[in-house]
Amino acid sequence: MCTCPAWATACAPPDPAAALQPSLSFCTFAMRNTMPFTLYTFAMSHYSEKIRWTLDTAGVPYQESVMTPVFHMLPALRMGRRGQTTLPVLEGRGQRVQDSPRILDWLNREGLLSDLIPNAHVAEVRAIEDRFNRIGKDVARLLYARSFGKADEHIVRLWVEHASPLQAAVIKAFYPVIRWGFRRKLNITEAAARRAEQRIGQEVAWLESRLTDGRTYLVGEQLTVADITAASLLAPIACPTEHPVYGDSAFREAMTEATAPWRHSAAMAWVRAMYQHRRGAMQGGVNLMRQAA
Ligand SMILES: N[C@@H](CCC(=O)N[C@@H](CS)C(=O)NCC(=O)O)C(=O)O
């Protein structure tokens, strides 16, 4: 629900993304105008979580703008200017950058990630980031494949959680059509879901082999974007308590069939431990917005 006083709305900058997110509160408006960066996300997106976690750990002040599926498309297309509708998009210092590896490149060039991408290990860290990025779509594909038709009520709840009343009404009314669109866009078929499960299984096995020597971090002796990417992209399967979406018992229940093969694996135990010990607070406001919704 919009709680902006009239004067605040009247002096708001012409922001296409904000115009499509009328549920932003006055708090959000005020923060956006003092925060150097705005991160456009979906609350449940694991790629968004990767950048959220990176910004939180690097101590980069940012405001999170949580978008609603379908309504994100036009702003994401405009902001990204790459013919893509994906989130996250990071805005700041006069730029808008889409795509999580490109966002990391940019932040690194700005000198903000020297601890998370240490000079001595750049190639190895980025290679591990890349291998887990590659299974991100498979994770989404598998989760939706196993929950569409069984946990639709929870999926609708997730999609409308940060929506305006009008957006929520549209999502609810057209859910079957939107679900069909998702199926097509993500190529959600039984065969594709089985291939996704296989590819995720390979990366889970790789992660476990990497951890057999008892190490905490995937590269070197400190947290890097390799750990953040692996943990974030697998978080919808590990369902760590600390995450506002994946830690919800209703999410765990809705995704139980998809997550079953790895629920008790050492890899998921590592993801949960990373969340418990290294994730820290989400500074951008995703939790605050959730409480206010
Ligand atoms: N390569 C992109 C992938 C991001 C991505 O697939 N994001 C999903 C959410 S997890 C998305 O925005 N899907 C909606 C769309 O494609 O319109 C990245 O690393 O940022």
Summarize the model shown.
With 293 residues, the chain is α+β, with helices and mostly antiparallel strands. Helix content is 57%, strand content 6%.
Descriptive keywords:
4-stranded mixed sheet, globular, 57% helix, Glutathione S-transferase Yfyf (Class Pi), Chain A, domain 2, binds glutathione, 4 strands, 17 helices, 293 residues, alpha+beta, Glutaredoxin, 2 domains
Overall description:
The structure is a single chain. The chain has a 4-stranded mixed β-sheet, with helices on both faces. 43% of the residues are buried. With 293 residues, the protein is an alpha+beta fold. The chain has 17 helices and 4 strands. It has helices spanning 6-10, 16-19, 26-32, 46-58, 73-80, 100-109, 122-133, 136-147, 152-160, 165-173, 175-185, 190-211, 225-238, 249-254, 256-259, 266-279, 286-292; strands spanning 37-41, 62-66, 89-92, 95-98. The protein folds into 2 domains: 6-117 and 284-292, Glutaredoxin (3-Layer(aba) Sandwich), CATH 3.40.30.10; 121-279, Glutathione S-transferase Yfyf (Class Pi), Chain A, domain 2. Helices cover 57% and strands 6% of the residues. The chain is globular. β1, α4 and β2 form a beta-alpha-beta unit. Bound molecules: glutathione (GSH). The site of glutathione has 14 residues, from α4 and α6.
